[in-house]
Amino acid sequence: MDRNLLHLSFEGKALEDPWSEPEEEMFILSVSPERAPDRPTYVELTFEKGDPVAIDGESLTPAALLTRLNALGGANGIGRVDLVENRYVGMKSRGVYETPGGTILGVAHRAMESLTLDREAAHLKDELAPRYAALVYNGYWFSPERLMLQALIDASQTHVAGVVRLKLYKGNVTVVGRRSELSLFDPAIVTFEEDFGAYDQTDATGFIKLNALRMRIAAMVRQNRS
């Protein structure tokens, strides 16, 4: 067993058989989803520059915030993961983890980014995330490449600020609301109702035709050869 503020991991003994289900008595931070309350728990997380800073409007230090989320998530059966991972040395290893607070933060942060992060910036960050994770997993925290990636990620979080409302229920974390003064979501543009000229659908005609050009050329070539 290995424990820190973010997670609790279990390895060895019965878990060395990938077919063996973990015993319920093993878990420390969380109840099973079956034993979680029959009523959901709602929680609001506030973010500033990509960092969580408050729960339900109460400002907390990072350690206190994660401790609170661990308790809330654990009580609702959230954060259990059973996986077979690829070790740096080449072997596969099975681990069972409890990360209640981290699971909640991951879902909430992604929801906040969906509202405030530019599309291409979000795509680039998603492309780099596996590389960043691999560097951390393999122990390269102080490497120059990790520091370079960190600078890019920090820059991406400049406008990731606002509040995310979550529903915690029997092992699930569901986003039920998000708001931000820096939101890129414009109701006047995305509405399915009358937008009074805010968005002209005919603007899309040109790039739809251009994007289809390669397929139209291929279709004509094949047709001429048949």
Walk me through this protein's architecture:
With 226 residues, this protein is of the alpha+beta class. The protein has a domain at 2-117 and 159-183: Argininosuccinate synthetase, chain A, domain 2 (Alpha-Beta Complex), CATH 3.90.1260. The protein has seven helices and nine strands, in the order βββββαββαααββααα. The chain has helices at 62-75, 100-116, 119-137, 144-156, 187-190, 204-211, 213-225; strands spanning 2-3, 8-10, 41-48, 51-55, 58-59, 80-86, 92-98, 162-169, 172-179. Strands 5-4-3-8-9 form a five-stranded antiparallel β-sheet, with helices on one face. The model has no long low-confidence stretch (mean pLDDT 93).
User: What percent of the residues sit in helical stretches (DSSP H or I)?
Assistant: 25-40%
CATH first level of the domain at 2-117 and 159-183: Alpha Beta
Mean pLDDT, rounded to whole units? 93
Q: Compute the CA-based radius of gyration.
A: 23 Å
Quantity of strands, as a count:
9
In the CATH hierarchy, the third-tier topology of the domain at 2-117 and 159-183 is known as Argininosuccinate synthetase, chain A, domain 2
Measured by DSSP, the beta-strand proportion falls in 15-25%
What's the story with the biggest beta sheet? 5 strands, antiparallel
What is the spatial order of strands in the main beta sheet?
5-4-3-8-9
CATH-level-2 architecture of the domain at 2-117 and 159-183: Alpha-Beta Complex
